[in-house]
Structures are given as structure tokens and as C-alpha cells.
Amino acid sequence: MSEFSHIEYPIQIPYHLRVYFTQSAFDVGNPLFRDLACSRESGNRRKALFYVDEAVAAANPNLATQISAYFDHYSEELRLMGVEILPGGESLKNDNGRLNRIYADIENRKICRHSYIVAIGGGALLDTVGFAAATAHRGIRHFRFPTTTLGQADAGVGVKNGVNFNRKKNFVGAFAPPFAVVNDFSFLKTLPEVHLRNGYIEAIKVALIRDASFFDWIEANVDALNAFEPEAMQSLIHRCAEHHVAHIATSGDPFEMGSVRPLDFGHWAAHKLEQLSEFALTHGEAVAIGIAIDTLYSQEMGYLSASSAERILALLQKLKFEIYSDHLERRNGSRFPYVLEGLEEFREHLGGLLTITLLKRIGSRFEVHEIDTDVVLRAMKRLKNLS
Ligand SMILES: NC(=O)c1ccc[n+]([C@@H]2O[C@H](COP(=O)([O-])OP(=O)(O)OC[C@H]3O[C@@H](n4cnc5c(N)ncnc54)[C@H](O)[C@@H]3O)[C@@H](O)[C@H]2O)c1
Ligand SMILES: [Zn+2]
User: Fold this and answer.
1) Which CATH number does the domain housing residue 208 bear?
2) Which terminus of the chain has fewer Cβ atoms in its 10 Å neighbourhood, N or C?
């Protein structure tokens, strides 16, 4: 007789990761949101509760009125339960009390599992509201409207959300594919330059790990990207989002149960740098430095050619990213700078073996499970001299 018995059924849940590209989504002439919201089985009018990034609301003072007019226009099918404004940026993810207030709104507005939560804002707002939506009532369908280049190209089009805890990035979060993502390019018109630029870094990242011809395209379009020409930006966002979504859907590990996370190339140092700078460095700025470190590390270890490393650093600098920060030098009394703690925190966050993505060519990556900290220090020193 066996020592245990067990019952087992496979459960397969089909998810669809859908990203739409449009302009002026809440113009009554644009039926996209209505069509998506009403695409499920028919029933009562669809309730929706909106959360809008404060900076987006300030830059688009008519947005709440426009959303309200949109719902009036489609009042037979849609019901607006409120438009709430939340502060944007990383401070939102650091303010854990904010989550309770979102849960209270959801309770008070009687948002149920058949309703929608709609988040309009930067990656930080999408991460926070997405987490609240994923956990209230054990999951409410949510729409994401990323309003930054980084959000439209990367942060907003994935399946992850989360908030910081004790200033540790994304310590609390969930994997919860959004009901749909709508990239409305018209929101980018009011985005400050530093944030317009930040999205470029995730495009460079995805090009480095997956697509050499995309890297060539970014190089060839540097001037248009530096001038923030809408056509170039939209192409970059579209291609980056496509890679991001394709990776999640086809890598075989959408919820990151394994240890390999190529989309986090350059991120082990970046997350620590954001924290060390008290979030004065934006995610994009920190990732640029993280990519520069892992590029030179790849070269120092003999995996990547010197000419490829030079090309990568040159592109970062042509797109006006800093490749070094004084925060890299801050030390905890020993000869090792704090930033190296990022390696262990990265491993802890993933669990299991330390797994770091490196480059063997532009467009081609591989993983290592050990990092030689002396070589990292050497790479950082070279970046200081180059910057
Ligand atoms: N979930 C994921 O898979 C994922 C992936 C990458 C990054 N992220 C997270 O995303 C966050 C970074 O996102 P981000 O780069 O979008 O920055 P952000 O959310 O911090 O927004 C940047 C600033 O721009 C303002 N803003 C946003 N849209 C605007 C607009 N259209 N006009 C004017 N101002 C606007 C915001 O209020 C904020 O002050 C980080 O917390 C990062 O960890 C998440
Ligand atoms: Zn990132």
C-alpha cells in the first residue's frame, strides 16, 4: 500500500495579453474602450472606476469631463463609478497606506468582479492600481492606459504589478494580466522630456537581448528620437511593446516561476540605484546605468566584443543617458559599494539561484549564475572614466 494518495487535475487558463494603439481614446467618436469593455458576455451595464495620475490630470484638465461625457454617450452599456486622482511617480509605490484607501474606494463604490478598474498614468500608478485590482475581491478586471513612453513600451504592457515595501522595489505584488492595455499616444504630448526619453532605455534593453536589427534601427533614428518626433517614438514603442508581449507569451514562463528573467537585463544594479538615490534617479535613468555596467561586465569577461560594447555605450550617450552615477561609489564601510547588495536582493526576489542575463552579441543574450564582483568594480571604474 502506498504511503499517500493524491488527487490531481491540470488547470489551464487561457490568457490573452492585448495591447491596442490609438489616439484620443475618450473622444466619443472613438469606440475602442466601449467595444472592449462590452466584449464580454452581456449583462448589466459595465461599471468602471478610474484612477488617473495627478500629473496627467493636471496636464489634461478636461480629461475627467471627457471620460464622463464618454460614459454618458454610451450610457446604455457603461456606468462611471468615479474618477479618482492619485499622485504619480515612485512615491505612490512607496506609500503603502495608499493601497488601503484604494481598497476602501472599491468597497464604497461597490466595484465587483464584473466591473472594471481603469488606470491611466505612469508605470508607478499602473503598478499600484494594478496590484489593488489584482487583490481586491481576489481580482477585478483592469484596463491599463500607460501615459509614459516607458509605460507604453514596457511597464504597462506586461503581466506584473506591485508596490515597494521598506523601500525595496516591487517587494509586494502579483502576476495579473490586464483585461486590456490601451496605448493612447496623445497622452505623450504632455510628458516631460526626461520621461519621454526613459522609454528609450527599455527599447535598447529589449533590442540587446532579442533583436539586433531593432538596435540598428534605434541607432539610425537617434536624431528623430532626440527630437521626440511622434512617428519615431510610436514606432519604437510599438516594436518594444511587441517584443515585451511576445517574450511573456512565448518564453514558457509568463509568471516567472523559473530563475531566468531576460527582460530584467541591466536591472539588478538599477533597482538598487533607484533605492540608493532615494528614487531621485528615475527607473529609466537607473536602467541606463545598469545596462552600461552589465555591458562592460560582459566585455570584461570576454563574452562580448569590445566594438559591440563601444556601440552600446555610444548609443546610450547619444540618447543622452548618463552611464555613471556617484551613487555607485557609496560604500558600507568595506571596500564594496552598496550597489553590489543589489545582486543578493535580486536573487532573493527571484528565489533560487542567482541568474543574471549578459550579452554575447547585440541581440543575443545568455545567463550566468555567478558574478565576479571585482570585475563589476572594474566595469564601474571604466564607466566613471568614460562619463
Ligand atoms: N510592472 C512592470 O512590469 C514594470 C516594468 C518596468 C517598470 N516598472 C515600474 O514602472 C515605474 C516607472 O514608470 P514610468 O517610467 O512610467 O514613471 P512614473 O510612473 O514614475 O511617471 C513619471 C512621472 O511622469 C508623470 N506623468 C506620467 N504620465 C504623464 C503625462 N502623460 N504627462 C505629464 N506627466 C506625466 C507622473 O506623474 C510621474 O511624476 C517604476 O516604478 C518601475 O519599477 C514596472
Ligand atoms: Zn525596467
Assistant:
1) 1.20.1090.10
2) N
What ligand 1 atom has the least distance to the C-alpha of 170? 43
CA atoms of 75 and 78, how far apart (whole Å): 5
DSSP 134-166: HHGGG--EEEEEE-SHHHHHTGGGSSEEEEEET
CATH of the domain at 147: 3.40.50.1970
Whether the CB of 56 sits within 6 Å of ligand 1: yes
183 and 117 co-located in one domain: yes
Range 131-143 average pLDDT:
97
Residue 127, ligand 1, Cβ within 6 A: yes
Cα within 13 Å of Cα(258), Cβ side: 11
Residue 124 shares a structural domain with residue 153: yes
Taking the centre of ligand 2 as the mean of its atom positions, its distance from the CA of residue 43, in whole angstroms, is 39
Are 49 and 86 in contact by the 8 Å Cβ rule? The answer is no
Atom 21 of ligand 1: nearest residue by CA position: 122
Mean pLDDT, residues 182-188 taken together: 98
**Main-chain dihedrals φ then ψ at residue 230, nearest 5 degrees:** -55, -40
Q: Are residues 54 and 186 in the same domain?
A: yes
Q: What backbone phi and psi angles, to 5 degrees, belong to 355?
A: -135, 115
The structural domain count of the chain equals 2
> Which of residues 308 and 343 earns the better pLDDT score?
308
The mean per-residue pLDDT over the stretch 177-200 comes to: 97
Q: Please tell me the distance between residue 127's alpha carbon and the centre of ligand 2 in angstroms.
A: 12
Tens digits of per-residue pLDDT, 48-78? 999 999 999 999 999 999 999 999 999 999 9
Task: Report the pLDDT averaged over residues 315-324.
Answer: 98
162: phi then psi, degrees, rounded to nearest 5: 155, 170
Q: Where are the alpha helices (DSSP H) in the chain?
A: 32-37, 54-59, 63-73, 90-94, 97-108, 123-135, 149-153, 193-210, 212-220, 222-226, 230-250, 267-276, 283-300, 306-318, 341-350, 373-386
Residue 69 burial by CB count (10 A; 0-12/13-18/19+): exposed, middle or buried?
Answer: middle
Is the CB–ligand 1 distance for residue 93 below 6 Å?
Answer: yes
Give the chain's end-to-end CA distance (angstroms, integer): 70
